[in-house]
Design brief:
The complex is a heterodimer of chains A (356) and B (269).
Chain A: E1 3-12, E2 15-25, E3 30-34, H1 41-49, E4 56-61, E5 64-65, E6 76-79, H2 91-101, H3 106-119, H4 135-147, E7 153-157, H5 165-182, E8 185-190, H6 193-199, E9 202-207, E10 210-215, H7 217-222, H8 227-232, E11 237-239, E12 259-262, E13 267-270, E14 283-292, E15 297-303, E16 306-312, E17 324-329, E18 331-335, E19 340-344, H9 346-355
Helix pairs in contact in A: 2-3, 2-4, 3-4
Chain B: H1 5-34, H2 38-47, H3 49-82, H4 88-100, H5 103-114, H6 121-126, H7 135-146, H8 148-161, H9 164-171, H10 176-205, H11 208-214, H12 224-233, H13 237-268
The chains are: A alpha+beta (356), B mainly alpha (269).
């Protein structure tokens, strides 16, 4: 394990920013700290960097405890959300700053800066000041500046938050491939689950200063460990009593507090019986709202008084608000506060076996 | 906005009339009066040994106040913008105190603290230190009256810039002094110069506080503004206006520097 946090606690006044935070990260992994704003993810990042001091607990990087080591001596590169480029320095001087502090000789500095400017695709822009660069370019300069002193660990705070949507997508892919190429252990903070899922090898989900779950994007998606994770990933609805839907029954011994989480992907919305394979397992619902989402259509429906959300493709026939539709619920996540489980629609699976 | 042209010209007219009455005519009077008995009298008044002594003292007090308040101002602005601690608001308000207090009171405070009725008097006389009615007192009073200028100029600027750049430099292993020299100072330099210019202007013209602690000893504890008052009270109007014209010239020089600084600042932003 390259980075380890053990029982970290941190308070700002009465606000508990971190509570018993423990996790470890393998060398070379790209890890996303994902959580809603105010969930303590940036505080964790700043504590690893040494910009904040934990009240208790140990931070271990590369096998040694770094709690009392100065931020600049931890071998960390940090990319700030605002980029924090030195505004009165050129691109060249910005990237060279860390190398100059290490008292590298001039030739070495020039060579390294040239290498990095090429890596970020900004060769020829060396003489420009930060305010003469676009948002995406600044972001890449901040990245190169953090990498220049050869850190062992790279920390990125909301690296794409201030960039417009189109450039953001390109930068994400660029960052992912570049970090993979360099093989540097990296942790980035984000509140955008799509970003975390797309970029990270592993995701750590934070909420109220605590770690909810750590795992690969697929693990987190398929096996949410806590109700919060089940709800936070995807546009989910929490359902107090999921047994009111066709095909779902409470198992023996299930706790009465058990609730269900329904994701849009679990729901199939059909205009009529012909659009659906197993109409017997379907409920009837009313269309409440329709949103065009670019590559699909989001439909809010109401089934037995319960609002649900599902998607339809652009090729399917248009729905209108107030229309009665068939709603097939394929599966539900259930949780009773401790365990989460996937429950399939029983009628649908039985019908499937009949078809076979 | 086109149809409201008359508003624009009325406002411009009002400003011009006001400035002419309140500023330009009085300044012209100073120059005219100073030269009313010819250049020979003018230069005699300016080159008078007491005038030169007063000018030296004014420049000394100004220099001391500027150096002291620049260092203090930088420290205070740094502390107030880059750290959070208990009593921060109280410290911030205290810095503004000299703006709120009448300069005369500031002068009296120093007379009470360091004068003959003070508890420190025995200690000061024993060590042969003279503060009140001597140069140190004048310098102290000038520093007191001008100390908010640099800080007040820097605080909004440093607040707007935040501490991200400093933190970025910290992450790369820069020491506190290197961060100040290479990151903070270049970012605030024009604000700092502007604060220094305002501080200089105020320090040169300070009358009230200095008047109380000075004792008006000609050739010893008289600054230029005090010297002007003495000449005026002696009905020596030409000399008084001649010396006053020196302060006017300094003020104009300071204004020019100020405009250059503003122009440079805008060009970089």
């Amino acid at each position: 394990m390259y980075v380890e946090l053990k029982q970290i606690n941190k308070k700002f006044g009465d606000f508990k920013a971190s509570q018993d935070v423990s996790f470890s990260i393998e060398q070379g992994k790209l890890v996303g700290l994902l959580g809603p704003s105010g969930s303590g993810k940036t505080t964790i990042l700043r504590m690893i960097a040494g910009l904040e001091k934990p009240d208790s607990g140990d931070i271990i990087i590369g096998g040694s405890r770094v709690n009392d080591i100065a931020p600049g001596k931890r071998g960390i590169g940090f990319v700030f959300q605002s980029y924090a480029l030195f505004r009165h320095m050129t691109l060249f001087d910005n990237i060279a700053f860390g190398l100059t502090l290490q008292k590298k000789n001039k030739k070495e500095i020039i060579q390294k800066v040239n290498e990095l400017t090429e890596l970020i695709g900004l060769t020829g822009f060396e003489g420009r000041y930060p305010n003469q660069l676009s948002g995406g370019q600044r972001q890449r300069v901040a990245f190169a500046r953090a990498l220049a002193p050869n850190p062992k660990l790279l920390l990125l705070d909301e690296p794409f938050a201030a960039i417009d949507a189109k450039v953001r997508k390109e930068l994400r892919q660029w960052l992912r491939t570049t970090i993979a190429k360099l093989g540097i252990t990296s942790i980035f903070v984000t509140h955008d689950q799509e970003e975390a899922v797309e970029v990270a090898d592993e995701i750590i989900i934070t909420n109220h200063g605590q770690i909810e779950q750590k795992g690969t994007p697929l693990q987190i998606y398929k096996k949410p460990a806590t109700p919060f994770v089940a709800q936070f990933i995807g546009e989910s609805h929490i359902i107090d009593d999921y047994t009111k839907f066709k095909g779902f029954e409470r198992k023996n011994g299930a706790s009465p507090q058990e609730k269900g989480v329904l994701r849009p992907e679990f729901i199939e919305i059909a205009k009529d019986e012909t659009e659906i394979l197993t109409p017997l397992a379907a409920e009837k619902g009313i269309v409440r709202a329709i949103y065009f989402r670019g590559n699909n259509i989001q439909v809010d429906i109401e089934v037995k008084g319960q609002p649900l959300t599902g998607y339809r493709t652009l090729e399917q026939e248009d729905l209108t608000i107030g229309m009665e539709v068939f709603v097939l619920i394929h599966r539900v996540y259930t949780f009773d506060g401790i365990h989460t489980e996937v429950v399939e629609n029983r009628i649908k699976t039985e019908q499937d076996s009949v078809y076979i | 906005m086109q149809e409201k042209k008359y508003v624009k010209y009325t406002l411009i007219g009002l400003s011009v009339v006001f400035l002419t009455l309140m500023l330009i005519i009085p300044l012209l009077v100073v120059i005219v009066e100073a030269l009313s008995k010819g250049f020979a009298v003018y230069f005699k008044a300016i080159l008078d040994p007491f005038t030169l002594k007063a000018m030296n003292l004014t420049l000394l007090a100004t220099l001391a106040a500027v150096v002291c308040n620049t260092i203090f101002g930088l420290c205070a602005a740094w502390v107030l913008t880059k750290y959070s601690f208990k009593g921060k608001n109280i410290l911030s308000s205290l810095i503004d105190l000299p703006f709120a207090i009448s300069p005369v009171i500031a002068g009296l405070v120093f007379v009470m603290t360091f004068g003959r009725i003070s508890y420190l008097n025995d200690f000061l006389t024993a060590n042969n230190l003279r503060i009140v009615f001597a140069t140190p007192g004048i310098i102290l009073a000038t520093i007191f009256v001008t100390f908010p200028f640099v800080t007040r100029e820097l605080i909004p600027l440093m607040q707007a810039q935040g501490k991200d750049e400093e933190e970025a430099a910290t992450m790369m292993g820069a020491s506190g002094f290197t961060i100040f020299r290479k990151v903070t100072l270049p970012n605030i330099k024009w604000g700092l110069v502007y604060g220094v210019v305002l501080c200089t202007a105020r320090a040169m013209g300070e009358f009230g506080a200095v008047s109380v602690v000075s004792g008006h000893i000609r050739g010893k504890t008289n600054t230029l503004p005090l010297h002007i008052e003495i000449l005026y009270n002696e009905y020596n109007f030409t000399a008084a206006f001649a010396v006053a014209s020196i302060l006017v010239i300094f003020a104009i020089l300071i204004l020019i520097v100020r405009n250059i600084v503003e122009w440079k600042n805008e060009k970089e932003a």
